[in-house]
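Before drawing any conclusions, I looked closely at one protein's amino acid sequence and its backbone structure tokens, quoted below without any editing.
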Amino acid sequence: MRTQVAIIGAGPSGLLLGQLLHKAGIDAIIVERQSGDYVLGRIRAGVLEQVTMDLLDEAGVGQRMHAEGLVHGGFDMLFKGERHRIDLNRLTGGKNVMVYGQTEVTHDLMDARQAAGLTTIYEANQVSVHDYDSAKPRVRYEKNGQTHEIECDFIAGCDGFHGVCRASVPKRAITEFEKIYPFGWLGMLSDTPPVHHELIYANSTRGFALCSQRSHTRSRYYLQVPMTDKVENWSDAAFWDELRLRLDPAAREQLVTGPALEKSIAPLRSFVAEPMRFGQMFLAGDAAHIVPPTGAKGLNLAATDVKYLSSAIIEHYQDKSEAGINHYSARCLRRIWRAERFSWWFTSLMHNFPENGPIGQKLQEAELDYIVNSDVGARSVAENYVGLPLNFGE
């Protein structure tokens, strides 16, 4: 097989890249080791920045998002038993975020790709990349007992943290930065109305909690737990009881409980790989960086990587220019490190770190008190939360 761009990974970043390239008349084949149903079954993020919403519109897949997504102009920060609203809309000159699950984004992109008759190879085994530092990169995989090879001009590694693309780069050619946090998020999805019409981020002496949502009838809740905890040790009743203890009295009154549709524990890490280009192969999304979910940056960072990469590839074919390709890594990394900083800071502010003792809790509360009572402090949080412009600082 021959194509212009071979995309490894059919998650939202790979699918979005494929859709943007298709709109520009560039051919791409997507190779995915899992089944389509498995990809759709992954429960992930649900808060979209304006930049991501604009990209989905540009890709022609934003209709359902606008019809069913929930526009949020703020969120609450809860500490010392009281809630305080961060008015995103006012503090950022009219910007908002959209609550629309990553599963739904993936569904919309899959439907668009299928409707256009574009090639996606699911359940591809033994995927490998070859000669990406030459003018003739190749992707090899096995399916139904046969080995297949795709010749291409570029390889896009959208295959996640454990994917083959980054793993194929020699250790001497890449630098990895990582911080592992000493706790995880125990998440529960339930068909219950949200406790509040906007998100609640809670700082509590018992640990962090987040009240999120996917729709007016489906809620997503998280609890900070030690990494030694096991999902099977948390009954639904135990989860709801602990969540109540981390909320304010008004939220407790509004909380509607029900059976879990899904329950899991996600580890938290900050991770960046530099650079993100290796010859004719590019990393994008989780293949190159991971952020703690506190700042709602994971999917949004992946989307902006894809925007920079699609623009660079389109520029290569349409304008015969290598400028976008040559600047791809540096451009992405500047934005990534800003998001990494915000996610690390927000995680450090909102979670319980037992090793910091009582003084650590007091210092967090003092900083939170400053933020909610200072337009300057609140504006910094709001500006980062809604997402910095694509050309910020350029």
In short: The CA atoms of residues 161 and 287 lie 4 Å apart. The mean pLDDT is 95.
